[in-house]
Amino acid sequence: MNQSLTTSNRPPYGILTIMMIGAFISFLNNTLLNIALPSIMADLKVEASTVQWLTTGYMLVNGVLIPTTAFLIQKYSVRRLFISAIALFTIGTVLAGFAHVFPMLLAGRMIQASGSAIMMPLLMNVMLVAFPIEKRGAAMGVFGLILMFAPAIGPTLSGWIIEHYDWRMLFHFITPIAVVVLLLGIFLLKDKKEKVDMTMDFLSLILSSVGFGGILYGFSSAGKKGWDSPYVYGTIAIGVIALVVLIMRQSKIERPFLHFGIFKYPMFALSSTITMVVNMAMFSGMLLLPIYVQDLRGISPMDAGLMMLPGAILMAFMSPITGKLFDKFGGRILAIIGLTITCVTTYYFSKLTFETTYTHLIILYSVRMFGMSMVMMPVSTNGLNQLPAKYYPDGTAMNNTLNQVAGAVGTALLVTIMSNRAASAAVDLAAEAKKKLTAPPSEEAIAAMEKQIEASAMLEGINFTFVVATFIIAVAIVLSFFIKRATPAEDKMNNKPEENKVVPKLAEN
Questions:
Q1: Do 344 and 299 belong together in one domain?
Q2: Where is the Major facilitator superfamily (MFS) profile domain (predicted)?
Q3: Is 226 within a domain?
Q4: Going by C-beta distance under 8 Å and a sequence separation of 6 or more, which residues neighbour residue 340?
Q5: How far is CA 364 from CA 152, 275, 281, 328, 355, in A?
Q6: What is the CA 11 to chain-centroid distance, rounded?
Q7: Under DSSP, is residue 496 helix (H, G, I), strand (E, B) or coil?
Q8: Element (H, E) at 191
Q9: Which residues of 431-454 are buried (b: 16+ CB within 10 A; e: fewer)?
Q10: Number of alpha carbons in the 13 Å side-chain half-sphere of residue 179
Q11: Which residues sit opposite 507 in a β-bridge?
């Protein structure tokens, strides 16, 4: 029995299942290495500034390649792109799993990223085309389950593997799954796409790579090198200039590399803005909590990962429910409720102390994840719903690219705020401690005092950064009141209704 990937027929659930498994392991890979970084540093004898390239390099490859997916999705079939993506991911996983020097590990990681960058926009575009608008929320809810649940369980799984096996096992256990998904894709996906005569505008590709890559590199380096470093402001400036030139070029060529004109659709522009703001604030929990629980409280990596597991399970449970609620009530009410919950819980995270209980952290983090589950996918789906179908690849590519940039910007800002606040707090605490001294302290007392001041200053920095994140989320709450239920609009870029659209087709036996 053949199934076409169109909204007029029954969606090909078998094919979507294969693609979702592939997307799951690629998303899982995003956070799997975080807890393993200290082990990799010790084993491969590299510094923290070097090992961070496993994360920064991954982000850079995504930032460079994701903008190309709009062209790739329109040019090539789903089958060809999916097989290419999962093959690249598998090759990178195998290479990283057998790495005994850091350059080999980094190369494997970046090859993984090249496959993962294609996977997410491809799957999102397939789901947009496969389901009618009235059922799209439920479908995207299942997609949201994968998108949020996979990275969330990464720290827990990674912590368990690191405690029992070598860090290379993180890659070895993914390899057989990736191989099975690759074989299923080769034998089950059938190509029905009509040949499309399109050519890549390589100047736009270069401008996009320099633009997004420069901004991502600059902001991701700011927390480590400082904002006054020429590597930071220089690369950001180059990136901004390249993006300005890219946008100007896209408005002049017949077939744009990336349709910036889709921001003429108000609900898409609003949803992109909200998700960018939320992404910036979301990293406060992902970035600051591991520092607090491991460095300040001495909680083991395994227990730190387990702390986040209930929230991940709750989010997984809620995503399909949220999708159905979106189909029924629209995105505004869900966004307002979800962002309010996220805002309140983020504020309470600014009240952390050295006595905050483990149970309190689990409950607060779980409620925060409950709020987040009601925001990202409903808001994104509502924005994409307003686009004509032929602009879905451009919309998904633009959303994913901007989310990468927002994540890098948010991480850099939060790290800088935390570091600066901790440094100023350390000076104040040291001055206060000196005033209380009645006699010259011993060397042991000085060492203990310095350690206590450092920990207290770091806690102050973390709490203050959560306050800043609270205000960032408050901005998103205000914006969410302007959300309206979106329906496919006319093609504003060509000033005519959408007609004779080319819909990609896919079949399964």
A1: yes
A2: 15-488
A3: yes
A4: 371, 477
A5: 15, 22, 16, 29, 15
A6: 27
A7: strand
A8: strand 190-191
A9: eebeeeeeeeeeeeeeeebeeebb
A10: 8
A11: 190
Is residue 92 within 8 A of residue 110, CB to CB? The reply is yes
Other CB atoms within a 10 A radius of the CB of residue 350 amount to: 17
In this structure, the answer to whether residues 186 and 208 fall within a common structural domain is no
Q: Do 195 and 290 have their domain in common? A: yes
Question: Does residue 449 lie within any of the structural domains?
Answer: no
Q: Average pLDDT of each block of 10 consecutive residues along the chain (509 residues)?
A: 46 77 81 76 78 76 80 83 93 93 92 88 79 72 68 75 86 92 86 66 85 81 76 90 89 77 90 88 71 79 77 79 85 93 94 91 90 86 86 82 78 79 87 77 77 89 92 93 79 49 45
Do 391 and 74 form a contact (C-beta atoms < 8 A)? Answer: no
Q: Hey, is 506 helix, strand or coil?
A: strand
User: Tell me, what's the pLDDT at 498?
Assistant: 44
* Distance spanning both ends of the chain, measured CA to CA: 5
Angstrom CA distances, 439 to 206, 427, 435, 445, 452, stand at: 65, 20, 11, 11, 19
In a domain, residue 215? The reply is: yes
Rounded to an integer, what distance in angstroms lies between the CA atom of residue 137 and that of residue 100? 45
Helix (H) or strand (E) holding 507: strand 506-507
Cβ contact 96:108 at 8 Å: yes
Residues in the chain: 509
Containing H/E element for 143? helix 136-164
Residue 500 lies in a domain: yes
Give the pair of three-digit tokens for residue 383: 């924005």
Structure tokens at 126: 């397939």
- H or E element: which one contains 190? strand 190-191
Statement to judge: residues 244 and 307 lie in one domain: no
Question: What is the SS3 assignment for 341?
Answer: helix
Kindly state whether residues 206 and 305 are assigned to the same domain.
Answer: no
| pLDDT of amino acid 420 | 82
Task: Supply 310's token pair.
Answer: 């209930």
**Among 192, 224, 256, which residue terminates a domain?**
256
Classify residue 285 as exposed, middle or buried by CB count within 10 Å of its CB (0-12, 13-18, 19+).
buried
CA nearest to 297, candidates 353, 342, 259: 353
Residue 153 Cα to chain centre, angstroms: 14
Three-class HEC string of 428-473 = HHHHHHHHHCCCCCCHHHHHHHHHHHHHHHHHHHHHHHHHHHHHHH
Which pTM does this prediction carry? 0.74
Are residues 282 and 348 located together in one domain of the fold?
yes
CATH number at residue 297: 1.20.1250.20
Q: Residue 214: which domain range?
A: 201-256
Label residue 427 left, alpha or beta by phi (over 0 means left) and psi (-120 to 50 means alpha).
alpha
Phi, psi at residue 33, to the nearest 5°?
Answer: -85, -15
> Using an 8 Å Cβ cutoff, are 70 and 96 in contact?
no
